[in-house]
TrEMBL record:
GO terms for cellular component: cytosol; protein-DNA complex. The modification 4-aspartylphosphate is found at residue 52. Residues 3-117 form the Response regulatory domain. Pfam families: Response_reg, Trans_reg_C. Transmembrane segments: none annotated. One of its GO terms (molecular function) is transcription cis-regulatory region binding. It comes from Arcobacter arenosus. The keyword Metal-binding does not apply. InterPro entries: CheY-like_superfamily (IPR011006), OmpR/PhoB-type_DNA-bd (IPR001867), Sig_transdc_resp-reg_receiver (IPR001789), WalR-like (IPR039420), WH-like_DNA-bd_sf (IPR036388). Residues 125-219 bind DNA. The keyword Phosphoprotein applies. This is Response regulator transcription factor.
Length: 219
């Protein structure tokens, strides 16, 4: 799943963007000011930034300049009300890859995001899981000979986590954070249920239990 950080100080518009992009299969993190973005990006990596320019504390242009100076080359799209060519030119000089003027057409935004992710090497190609199963990352579906097998959302979440960290061990804490976050309760039994669901799907030897540490996928 591709991760996008959205910076927007208009709360209603931010909620609209978040709902739309999550429905399109993206993992979304939000911020309402520039300093919040710096804090978030210090601890997290993203596939793309969507930044409003006119936001509190640190404006979008100064923020992206600071990120670029720190070596962060994450693709970025500005969402802006500015019509001033000088301001937009300044934005591109700081390392912006694209921009859209408000009011935003959400379908156009989606096309711009997909295009930019493809140009930056963020693949949307199906991932082969077994001889008969493939994973469609764009639409978050597992297909059996091309037919969607309609897996539960949390099983898809867990599969994505394993595929993103294919060469690494997945800890229990990482699973809890991805499947439940801070807002939902969980149990040790529910973690085992979802792990077993994936084993049934991919084969009993597809996920190794690393005792006392976590799990690792082997496809």
């Amino acid at each position: 799943m591709h991760k996008i950080l959205v910076l927007e100080d208009d709360e209603l518009f931010l909620e609209t963007l978040e709902d739309f992009l999550e429905d399109e299969g993206f993992e979304i993190k939000t911020a309402s000011n520039g300093e919040e973005v710096l804090s978030i990006t210090y601890e997290n990596n993203f596939d793309l930034y969507l930044f409003d320019i006119n936001v509190p504390l640190i404006d979008g242009i100064s923020l992206l300049k600071e990120l670029r100076n720190s070596g962060d080359n994450t693709p970025a799209i500005y969402l802006t009300s500015y019509k001033d060519k000088e301001k937009l030119t300044q934005g591109f000089l700081t390392g912006c890859d694209d921009y859209l003027k408000k009011p935003i057409d959400l379908d156009e935004l989606l096309l711009r995001i997909q295009s930019l992710l493809k140009r930056s090497g963020k693949s949307f190609e199906d991932i082969k899981l077994t001889e008969y199963l493939t994973f469609d990352p764009m639409n978050r579906r597992v297909l059996s000979n091309g037919t969607d097998i309609n897996l539960a959302a949390k099983v898809i979440d867990l599969l994505e986590l394993f595929l993103e960290k294919k060469e690494k061990i997945i800890t229990k804490e990482m699973i809890i954070d991805r499947l439940w976050g801070c807002s939902e309760g969980y149990s040790e039994g529910s973690i085992r249920v979802y792990i077993n669901n994936l084993k049934k799907l991919l084969g009993k030897d597809s996920i190794k239990n690393i005792k006392g540490i976590g799990y690792k996928i082997e496809l």
